[in-house]
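This part of the workshop introduces the protein records we will be handling. Getting from the letters to the tokens is the skill we practise here. An example says more than a description, so a record of this kind follows:
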Amino acid sequence: MTTTLLLTVVLTLSRALFPAPAGAPAEAPFRAVRPLPPPLSVTRWWDPPPTPYAAGHRGVDLAAPVGARVRAVGPGRVHYAGQVAGRGVLSLTLPGGLRTTYEPVRPLVAEGEAVTAGQVVAVLTEGSHCPGPCLHWGLLAGEDAYRNPLALLPAATPRLLPPAGTAPDRAD
């Protein structure tokens, strides 16, 4: 309950503070799934640069242990699977002109291969830029327009539960 509520608040604030620019797709044209099992624990937030070549954080970092299974967030095709600057990188082309990236990973799929939403596509490896192991998850719209990848995920529906030890009222 607390994790779901926290994730709901975080996603809502993230969308409010970092809205997509005009003309950008507001939502994914598919039902996105989490790249890692719940709960998602964000260790570094998306921090878009003020200009295309300025410093910024072009994705989110999600805490996860080395060896965690990474899933495709949507259906698509493998754009790239290999090494970039000594780190394993996987990039998937998704519907709607979107592309998502994952690093550092050991890809389990090959370039050109079709993937389904939720399919295990990689294993998290060491070598992240985080203090501890993490998955860097990025999202691009078009060729170079970075977006907040958390915006792909459906907003959680908050549910209020009765206080512990009490039964909910029933209208039978």
User: Anything to note?
Assistant: The longest strand covers residues 76-84. The CA atoms of residues 77 and 114 lie 4 Å apart. Confidence is low (pLDDT under 50) at residues 1-26. The first helix runs from residue 2 to 17.
